[in-house]
Amino acid sequence: LGPKGDHLEGMDCAKGHSILMHYYPPCPQPHLTLGTNRHSDPGFLTLLLQDHIVVNIGDMLQLISNNQFKSVEHRVVASQKGPRVSVACFFTLDNYPSARMYGPIKELLSEDNPPLYRDTTLQDFNAHYYSKGLDGHSSLKHFILQQ
Ligand SMILES: O=C(O)CCC(=O)C(=O)O
Ligand SMILES: [Fe+2]
């Protein structure tokens, strides 16, 4: 990313984890529904264990990296086959309420790379993410700085 290796740790990005276990039963009419709607994850990083491990970049890593890393959109399609089980480990601060402000990392910014997002707390970011719901639009839009 540029700054030294422990920079993200110093920003408490790895301090909190929450783990979600998903059980998707077989769905008799998968064309009528979805397993999980299209979304990107709100935190910094997600480790997702399904038949293999997937690493998903979250919205907050996109915000603090000033778009150097892009959060990845994904969804779960319902299936007649199954059941399907997955375990997601989110690197986030949901369980460590913190007043810390997060914005594009200063060391990454320059005249050619001005900040794209305003600073926010994790609480404010998550409040917006969860009140908006998984409507297929990125929560990051709400935090874009008007040029
Ligand atoms: O179950 C899955 O494969 C993905 C679940 C997911 O996207 C999430 O929990 O954010
Ligand atoms: Fe997800």
Summary?
The protein has 147 residues and is of the alpha+beta class.
List keywords for this structure.
alpha+beta, two-stranded antiparallel ribbon, 3 helices, binds 2-oxoglutaric acid, binds fe (ii) ion
Would you write up a description of this structure?
With 147 residues, this protein is of the alpha+beta class. It contains three helices and eight strands, in the order αββββαββββα. The strands form three sheets. It has a four-stranded antiparallel β-sheet. It has a two-stranded antiparallel ribbon with strand order 2-5. The two termini are 24 Å apart. The mean pLDDT is 93. Bound molecules: 2-oxoglutaric acid (AKG) and fe (ii) ion. Residues 39, 41, 74 line the site of fe (ii) ion (FE2).
- Outline type: elongated
Beta strands, count = 8
**How many strands, which pairing sense, and closed or not: the largest β-sheet?**
4 strands, antiparallel
Secondary structure tally, helices: 3
Strand order of the largest sheet: 1-6-3-4
Spans of at least 5 consecutive residues whose pLDDT stays below 50 are none
What helical percentage do the residues reach?
10-25%
Radius of gyration, in Å, reads 17 Å
The bound ligands are: 2-oxoglutaric acid, fe (ii) ion
N- and C-termini, Cα separation: 24 Å
Strand and helix layout:
Blueprint: H1 7-10, E1 17-24, E2 36-39, E3 45-49, E4 53-57, H2 59-64, E5 74-76, E6 84-91, E7 101-102, E8 120-121, H3 122-132
Antiparallel strand pairs: 1-6, 2-5, 3-4, 3-6, 7-8
The chain binds 2-oxoglutaric acid (AKG) and fe (ii) ion.
